[in-house]
Design a protein that fits this description.
Elements: H1 2-9, H2 30-35, H3 41-44, H4 48-51, E1 62-67, H5 73-83, H6 88-101, H7 105-108, E2 112-115, H8 120-126, H9 132-142, E3 145-146, E4 151-153, H10 165-172, E5 176-178, E6 188-196, H11 200-209, E7 216-224
Parallel strand pairs: 1-7, 2-3, 2-6, 6-7
Antiparallel strand pairs: 4-5
Helix pairs in contact: 6-9, 10-11
Family: Belongs to the ComF/GntX family.
Protein name: ComF family protein
Domain Double zinc ribbon: 5-38
Length: 225
């Protein structure tokens, strides 16, 4: 009864179109859920994401759940996650992708899930890392460990919006370092982030992770631009 009263006073709305959700809807209305542009990369063995890293760093496998377009539904969703404190979006996407990856042998062999880190200053300002719940729920689905204390960001950088690949890569060199490196040795790591654009940030993270002994790195993101 209390829940019903609270829903009446503070109705739950769709994160993208702001329409009031029905009792059987969670986070997104049915219409918006069906409009989400899924990639199915991991289902079809599509190498689109992996090709972004050819000749740059070795990536075992890579996927992204959704396609991102400017002013599109995925941009609205990630904006709510990243800037409006709607962390449940990460939970929702983590459960979704995790359910799909757990039946794929390659991803089922992951030992650790590691997020692209935020600098401590930015994390204090925002209050959270937007990929934390995404990663934790991926870890639950894959029956593995979420680990956010090994890959650290040492320099606070400005927004990467409107920068080309070289500018992004140049900004990322030597910005990531490892801590508790022993946790990584001989492990298959799934590196996660919210969105992949040029791949420069993920590339720099892979370079850092490869400083550990005998690691394999795969990648999974919420979206790809």
């Amino acid at each position: 009864m209390l829940t019903s009263v609270l829903d009446l006073i503070f109705p739950k709305v769709c994160y993208t179109c702001t329409s009031i959700l029905n009792d059987n809807e969670l986070h997104l209305c049915t219409k918006c859920r069906h409009q989400l542009p899924v990639t199915n990369f991991h289902k079809t063995n599509d190498p689109t994401v992996e090709k972004m890293f050819y000749g740059r760093v070795k990536v075992e496998r890579a996927t992204a759940l959704l396609r991102f377009t400017k002013k599109g539904i995925v941009q609205k969703l990630l904006h709510q996650l990243k800037y409006k404190g709607q962390e449940d979006i990460g939970l929702f996407l983590g459960d979704w992708l995790g359910e799909e990856l757990k039946s794929i042998e390659h991803y089922a062999s992951v030992d650790l899930i590691i997020p692209v880190p935020l600098h401590n200053r930015k994390k204090r300002k925002r209050g959270y890392n937007q990929v934390e719940r995404f990663g934790k729920h991926l870890a639950l689905a894959l029956n593995t460990t979420y680990c956010d204390d090994v890959l650290l960001k040492t320099t606070d950088t400005k927004s990467q919006v409107n920068k080309n690949r070289f500018a992004r890569w140049n900004d990322k060199t030597e910005l990531f370092t490892l801590h508790n490196t022993h946790k990584l040795n001989n492990k298959h790591i799934l590196l996660i982030d919210d969105i992949i654009t040029t791949g420069a940030t993920l590339e720099a993270c892979v370079i850092a992770l490869n400083k550990a002994t005998n690691v394999k790195v795969s990648i999974a993101t919420m979206a790809i631009a």
